[in-house]
Write a structure and sequence with these properties.
With 261 residues, this protein is an alpha+beta fold. The chain is built from seven helices and 14 strands. The structure holds 2-oxoglutaric acid.
Length: 261
């Protein structure tokens, strides 16, 4: 890929601003995804072909800096998309991948499937977020298995990132714990929900304020594997730039706060 080539089309960037996410197909290769899955099965001692060993609806794994994960996390295509959505020089390459949420075919409530926004920095016992999105440039879903409708794709509340800035604005720079944000919102209507389906290697690039949820029951046949890392920024969001050149992440926040004429 040439460094001048744009990864995302203009309508995809526009959709990111309006809907809060974009699916980057083939962000990394299917072969790398397979290598990562093999690594996980070895490390977690899980046989992906033996349902009798799948005793819980979800297994979470904090993450790894092993080479296959670094290869998946940082491809020229993914970096190109980061540049377009966050801005060149405004993010740091991933140093590994995590956390992983591996969900197994099961009718059991995993008890972690509520709507939420991800917090990005720790204050005491809780993860917080603020209007400048300290410590998070993007939320991302890296797909490592084939995820169809029946394989508990992550649920995405379309456009919900535009509901969050108004709540964070009143909290000043200190921000709010993540659960204080979602408790101020109603639940989405079915028509407002998108599902993060796709192929191994696809990456959903999401606005850091996007509200999302796991799903259940898993009625597919195979374990579903995703990683949900944050992208670390080099700076805070700026909503009042001298040159008026805003990243799509910033554009969405400004739009939500009525700062766009
Ligand atoms: O497993 C999923 O589909 C999503 C998990 C999630 O939203 C989280 O861990 O914050």
């Amino acid at each position: 890929m040439k460094s001048t080539e744009l990864v995302l089309q203009a309508d995809q960037v526009e959709s990111f601003v309006t809907n809060g996410f974009v699916r980057l197909e083939g962000g990394f290769s299917g072969d790398t995804a397979a290598e990562c899955r093999e690594w996980l099965w070895r490390e977690l001692k899980i046989d992906p072909d033996d349902p009798t060993g799948w005793s819980q609806p979800v297994v979470r794994f904090m993450g790894s800096t092993a080479q296959p994960f670094l290869d998946a996390a940082n491809t020229p295509r993914i970096h190109g998309a980061f540049n377009q959505l966050v801005g060149k020089g405004r993010w740091r390459p991933l140093l590994g991948l995590g956390t992983f949420a591996i969900r197994f075919p099961s009718e059991t409530d995993p008890e972690d499937a509520g709507w939420h926004v991800d917090g990005s920095y720790q204050v005491g016992e809780h993860l917080f977020l603020n209007l400048q999105s300290k410590s998070r440039a993007l939320l991302m879903l890296y797909l490592f298995s084939e995820i169809g409708d029946q394989d508990v794709p992550t649920r995405i509340w379309i456009g919900s990132h535009l509901r969050v800035p108004g709540i964070l604005q009143s909290a000043s720079e200190a921000g709010l714990p993540f659960f204080r944000v979602t408790e101020q919102l109603r639940s989405p209507k079915p028509s407002e929900i998108a599902f993060a389906t796709g192929a191994p290697g696809d990456v959903y690039l999401c606005h850091p304020f996007l509200i999302h949820a796991a799903d259940w029951p898993h009625r597919g046949k195979y374990p579903r594997v995703i990683a949900q890392p944050g992208l670390e920024p080099t700076d805070l969001l700026h909503l009042d730039r001298e040159d008026s050149v805003y990243s799509p992440v910033e554009q969405a926040v400004r739009q939500s706060l009525g700062m766009v004429s």
